Please model this.
Amino acid sequence: MNKKTLFLQGNETCVEAALYAGLGFFAGYPITPSSEIPELLARRLPQEGGKFIQMEDEIASMCAIVGASLTGLKSMTATSGPGFSLKQEAIGYAIMAEVPCVIVNVQRGGPSTGLPTGVSQGDVMQSRWGTHGDHAMVTLTASNHQDLFAMTVEAFNISETYRTPVILLLDEVVGHMREKLVIPEAGEIPLVERLRTSVEGGTDYHPYLPREDGRLPMSDFGGVHRYNVTGLMHDMWGFPSTNPKIAHGLMRQLIDKIEGHVSAVTHLNEFFLDDADNVLISYGSSARSALHVVENRRARGERLGLLELKTLWPFPADAVRERCNHVKSVLVVEMNMGQVILEVKKALDDPDKVFLANRMDGVFITPTDIRNILRLTQGKGV
Amino acid sequence: MNKKTLFLQGNETCVEAALYAGLGFFAGYPITPSSEIPELLARRLPQEGGKFIQMEDEIASMCAIVGASLTGLKSMTATSGPGFSLKQEAIGYAIMAEVPCVIVNVQRGGPSTGLPTGVSQGDVMQSRWGTHGDHAMVTLTASNHQDLFAMTVEAFNISETYRTPVILLLDEVVGHMREKLVIPEAGEIPLVERLRTSVEGGTDYHPYLPREDGRLPMSDFGGVHRYNVTGLMHDMWGFPSTNPKIAHGLMRQLIDKIEGHVSAVTHLNEFFLDDADNVLISYGSSARSALHVVENRRARGERLGLLELKTLWPFPADAVRERCNHVKSVLVVEMNMGQVILEVKKALDDPDKVFLANRMDGVFITPTDIRNILRLTQGKGV
Amino acid sequence: MNKKTLFLQGNETCVEAALYAGLGFFAGYPITPSSEIPELLARRLPQEGGKFIQMEDEIASMCAIVGASLTGLKSMTATSGPGFSLKQEAIGYAIMAEVPCVIVNVQRGGPSTGLPTGVSQGDVMQSRWGTHGDHAMVTLTASNHQDLFAMTVEAFNISETYRTPVILLLDEVVGHMREKLVIPEAGEIPLVERLRTSVEGGTDYHPYLPREDGRLPMSDFGGVHRYNVTGLMHDMWGFPSTNPKIAHGLMRQLIDKIEGHVSAVTHLNEFFLDDADNVLISYGSSARSALHVVENRRARGERLGLLELKTLWPFPADAVRERCNHVKSVLVVEMNMGQVILEVKKALDDPDKVFLANRMDGVFITPTDIRNILRLTQGKGV
Amino acid sequence: MNKKTLFLQGNETCVEAALYAGLGFFAGYPITPSSEIPELLARRLPQEGGKFIQMEDEIASMCAIVGASLTGLKSMTATSGPGFSLKQEAIGYAIMAEVPCVIVNVQRGGPSTGLPTGVSQGDVMQSRWGTHGDHAMVTLTASNHQDLFAMTVEAFNISETYRTPVILLLDEVVGHMREKLVIPEAGEIPLVERLRTSVEGGTDYHPYLPREDGRLPMSDFGGVHRYNVTGLMHDMWGFPSTNPKIAHGLMRQLIDKIEGHVSAVTHLNEFFLDDADNVLISYGSSARSALHVVENRRARGERLGLLELKTLWPFPADAVRERCNHVKSVLVVEMNMGQVILEVKKALDDPDKVFLANRMDGVFITPTDIRNILRLTQGKGV
Model:
């Protein structure tokens, strides 16, 4: 079999990319529309030498990948809305304990069980704010399989670089859509491997003492070093502390290691922005319809452009501002009640020129939907 | 003992107010710093004819109050950070099924288990966006016991009026601080009782068909009417539907019943705003320090005012705008990395004049902390 | 029968008002949706001592009222789209010859025969620019029967004051809607009567020599004075001239007598404009739906206002600017592809804040239509 | 006689170009200053195998060319002001029934019969808005014979491409001015021929069902297909319909086929615009005087440019904006009370920098007229 060019579902592409990135452990509990990910990994991961476990529930799945990651394996789980909510408490643990891991959320419609097979992008804000307490978060997404492959690998790379959970926020259309994928050669996409401590066995290893470059070397848990891991505020040895200076320092570390590297983790696609008078901003599958509209209007001479976001959090406010602050209007295209638009408005001097083209009924937003709303927001009526 | 005037902890005040509002059922799992609430209710609630259950975990507690509420009882649970995260999935169910209930979150410090006995206001954004999918949310808070009593009753009133879960977002200082409380006379604060259907037994009851005024009459579950309750998108009978029009209509109902009544659910305290040149905005215990600063500066002739928010969500943007758009500067005082400030900036034409006075180390923010930051944001240097 | 309070169709109200204003002559050719006007006048006008003629076609009808007006009678015709187009050449004659008359156009849908019984407001621009050559025009409209009565009388008053044809631009919904009308007492609305020359018989009467106040006294044609009336450029005796100075003077007279009196002929209704942040602008029947939206939103605390135009031409740009230049957004509500919005955009400094809520399918625009578009133009999505 | 280079009146040039374009039918009623067109065609058209009919009036002429076009012949009529007004109703029919045809309006002065031999450009707005109901319109013009030839051919090309009436809006000076014309070789200007359906006889031909590229193939009326043509709103078979979706779809088709192809039908001449600080905008014969001024000033080093519009409708707002938004001032040169200036003001961010140089007395505007006004609008006084 020639593995170079495949015709896959998005969920399958995500699996191929995770394997490419060096996935060593997956734990999950099947939930539509993400079920193809565990289904395929149950077969593929052992073939590649990794471990696959189907867990008893969503919470256990999240806890399992945190534990596995600490032992030294790149780890991932996959879920959808209700499972993502259930995982929030353990995600907070991964944030606090600084455990690299990747959580795939293939979004479905609505709150609660909602529309299991309907498309939605309603978990954008939750992917930033879903767990309690102050923290920062990285969330990536993609609209096509080639980008999805790259962003999945990037999710692992960022999680290892910054010792943080990373959310890969897909949607039902991207997850189930079949499209051509060319698998990159080994080495074509650089991989960030686990940074292990150079401290030999003994007591000199400080699991939460950053190196000069800010990174925290790890030691495979259960290995040569004994150290503490906790969800409580802790010092450089991992022991709990209520000392305000230590608490403040830890909070700044958790937040700044991400908010201080926005440009390093920002991934965008730009279409026709150079001379655009009006700009669409979109992400995930809705960006496909947005791109269709832009290409169609360009053919007619309209100066319309598209800014596609592949990094949702930390929100690339400076990049959005640089590309859109001067244009006449911005139309954010997303399948929810308006979530990314909240950040776009904050990024621009004139929030009143930012409009929303959306659906939130479980149906994919089409170019026609966008065109109709674009007419209205340009004051052209129905 | 004359019960009219008491000297209580905030958590105890919350209990007294819940009983005043007609609490009929409480389920919970103790967690610092909210544990006094179940502790006291375990004794007080049966005395008043209500039911108290200590559940096996946080999720079960949330599910229990949803079920109890459906049978006709005003229901409540109490928790803190990690428990609040665990409850998010079931909160989404209460949103979707439109079940009135009150969730008290007495915030502690940090993500994960963090600082169990340290103060924080880090769950503001989570209380809006913690569960998956598009939805709206009501979140109330208070800085003193008299307001805490009133806001607790209001939480029940709003939950019954709009058939929605309501978050009562307290913090460790408010929860544990002792202060005088004058219990209102019966009837002094109007109570909103459960709106029950006037449809006699039979099949004519439509659990999700709004009346002309938008309200949804309920029927005690297990009583004369048989009907369906689900977390899936559903029609007016409560049966699951993937019809896009029905899904869209339900989403708008869930969102508009709250976002369309912002002014009706907005509660504020205003101090010296009429002629203020500079305004502090705060809430919860940090508003106590903010008020101290304002009173102190007024005595010196400075035109400083305080806007204290008791409604955090839906965010009272119009009210904030009306009071602060024209002033020279706004200083948001909160104990987190800056959460309410995100909304204040969106509400005002010039976000650059909004500053943050905060702590996030588990220590209470003092008037001195605020004064030092106020000097700096007024360009007066250290 | 007590004639004071009636329950009438709009077309019937127009008839009552024309009789109140002193209508002496009507010529017309029935065309839906204006046919009730000739039908009722055929009976009522002779009862009041006036003359009614059903003509052989639309052009003849227009020519007849020009001739009748010259003999001293207040004259009117009524038509709809295709008839209005056919009348344009003779309307130009009335402009050039400065003949007072009133043309009622009860608009129907679409170009050509279009939708004879569907509603539309598609003739707004045509009522200004439908005839060839430079000129000015007065066009009035109304959304309710009491205003329709007043505007019909005002149409006669303006036509007599400025010796100009006046268009009364109604729409199918206003024309056919039944509503209460209280007939004003005689004298309650002042009437402008024909200004007749004080020159006795002989040759000293100059039909096109303005008085000091700019008005042109008339002499009943066929009476004591012989004078010339022509569609050609002419001098003060009415004789043709190609002298550039005379041509220029006549053009300025035709234009300035109207464009120089914009405020005198401007009629508006204002609803909740004092503190409005966002303003709807509408006219005719669509203003009824707009008002419904505004009252509904005001009840919910939104600062929405309505500016209803009863004078469409000369466009009251200064009045619109005064009321709307400072607001956040303006939504023009009309049943066409966007016609009045073109003028509103010209009147304001920031045309990008002007949006269109419209229908153009022959169906009445409802409050729900407007609300849905208002959401989108406020950036709130669907 | 070598026909390649001729010395002709503009009206004669128009005739030569119509024949070049493949004119097959002309119907008209002579009216100054367009009479040379029917006069010459009465002789020339039969020579070329076409049909010429002098009709009994203006309306009949317009109706005749609509009917002839439906049978498969490229058709044209010519008129001036009063005739153009009379034709408006039948022009609306051609719009609604989507019948290709060309209407030449050689403008004269004033409203009504006005100044039959005086020059004017007073019908610009009427050529857009003269018929009732929402619609779009194409109007072309030219200032010299070579352009007039090209624009006449383009009028036929556009009318066939988009199945729409096209107005060729000339003025008395262009119509009567003699100038050199080099007739292009056959094929030098590409011709758009009638797009006929490929459907064989039978009932499968849908006269109003657009092809994938948006164009509507025609079938010669009276030929192998029976189908309905109406001025009423109609479905894809041409049968009347009041279905709102069909009505809306038809309206959008009539409007978008033109408004959606603005750049494709925009024709401009640009003179010295690259570095211009101040720009004149003009069209038709007045552009000749404007060009004289510009060339004269350039010789003196002034950065003055000229944008000559050959497409008046759909108004090339983007093109005007691109060339003029950044300049210091714009002076619109036209012979009317200010018509094109209304559109120029709408196209630019700062309408206050747009000025008018005009005459409206039947006399040709000269370079001296323009220069005097230019001084004043540049603040240089008289």
